Amino acid sequence: MNGSTLHKTAADCAEELPGAQLEHPFGDDWEVFKVRGKVFMLMTEVPGRPVVILKADPGEAHALREQYRHISPGYHMNKKHWITLEAGEGVDKELVQELVTDSYRLVVARLPKAQQPVDPHTYGAGRQAAS
Predict the structure, then answer these.
(1) How many domains does the chain have?
(2) Gap between the Cα atoms of 116 and 68, Å rounded
(3) Which of 4, 33, 72, 115 is the most exposed place for a label (fewest CB within 10 A)?
(4) CB burial class (10 A; 0-12, 13-18, 19+) of residue 75?
(5) Which domain holds residue 14?
(6) How confident is the model over 23-75, as pLDDT tens digits?
């Protein structure tokens, strides 16, 4: 997967998530996706390389960094709770969709129940089985 495909795939997935909104609080170079005002995905370029920055469970984030050379600690974010995804070998549409959905679910789970647009424990649960 190349960089422009990475951004398009991530954005397409994020736009389908209930309550997700795109904002540009840091200028046109940053696309920030939020749910109920909380960030779950950022997209930009770091020296000419398109990247997607996502929230991840700390244990899973470490495992992902070990497994994929195109996943690194979150760029300008808490390195324990965020990852940076770059395009490259082994990065495919399914991985991008899974990471975006997982980031969204982690953020939704921290919202008060009344503000949750979906049940984060069941949303997307059948997604991988259907793939």
Answers:
(1) 1
(2) 31
(3) 4
(4) middle
(5) 3-130
(6) 999 999 999 999 999 999 999 998 889 999 999 999 999 999 999 999 999 88
